Amino acid sequence: MKITQFALGAALVAALPLAASAADSMKDAPMRGTLRVAAAFNPAPPKKGLETITISVKDAAGKPVKGAMVKISSTMPLMSMSGPTMTARETANGTYAAKANLNFATAWTFDISASANGKTGKTKLSADVK
Fold first, then answer.
1. Contact assessment for residue 104 and residue 17, using Cβ atoms and an 8 Å cutoff
2. Residue-by-residue pLDDT tens, the chain, 130 positions
3. Which of 44, 46, 72, 121 has the fewest CB atoms inside 10 Å of its own CB, making it the most exposed?
């Protein structure tokens, strides 16, 4: 019985470096199937009132993505309130824009998500509106 337990234990110990190296290579592997999403106010910094959010959507290779669905939700964390939700429209190759009515002078957070061809990407945009 002791020989069987020893053999099983030795087999497990021998397999540990393989399992660790497989896990390590997964950790360092590039993510596939995602979009790169970046956002900014235009002009910046935003002021109270109607402002434009410009969004850039690129694939993993850095090429602009046409025809993406870009959704934006907003919150005002200091006021514990939700703000408007928007859908951005494509204005150029891989560039999207949405008008946001920033009707309160407070901190705003915008959660932006894009999807195209089965791939997705997200980003956040925060601003202190005066």
1. no
2. 444 443 434 443 344 333 333 333 323 334 444 999 999 998 889 999 999 999 999 999 999 999 999 999 999 999 999 999 999 999 999 999 999 999 999 999 999 999 999 999 999 999 999 9
3. 44
Cβ count near 65 (within 10 Å): 24
Query: Strand, helix or coil at 23?
Result: helix
Q: What is the DSSP string of 52-87?
A: EEEEEEE-TTS-B-SS-EEEEEEEEGGGTEEEEEEE
- In 3D, which of 63, 74, 60 has the Cα closest to residue 113? 74
Per the listing, tokens 């020989």 go with: 3
Q: What is the pTM of this model?
A: 0.72
Q: How far is CA 28 from CA 24, 34, 119, in A?
A: 7, 16, 20
